[in-house]
Amino acid sequence: MNGERVGKWGSLRGAGTPFFRYEESWANAPQGRALSLSLPVTADRQLRGQAVEYYFDNLLPDSAEIRSRIRTRFQTRSSDA
């Protein structure tokens, strides 16, 4: 955010559970803040599950056709967040 790395987003291998982990430098910085009320900065700075999935999915277009084009262009395995 504004040139600062906020965290890492991914999914846990095997289970495919989405996670987001805030960078320690972001969490401790004066300008550090949560990306969303649904993704608060916690003591261990890591969040998992539906809140993470829903937040990032909401950043993508709703149109299945547009998601498909994005998937093709960036050669991803899925058009889901």
Low-confidence segments = none
User: Which strand order spans the largest sheet, edge to edge or round the barrel?
Assistant: 1-2-3
Number of H- or I-type helical stretches: 3
Q: Tell how many strands the DSSP assignment holds.
A: 3
- Topology as a string of helices (H) and strands (E): EEHEHH
Mean pLDDT: 91
Helix fraction by DSSP (H/I, runs of at least 4): 25-40%
| Class by SSE composition | alpha+beta
**What composes the largest sheet?**
3 strands, antiparallel
Domain module count:
1
Could you tell me how far the N terminus lies from the C terminus, measured between alpha carbons in angstroms? 19 Å
Strand content: 15-25%
Radius of gyration: 14 Å
C-alpha geometry:
globular
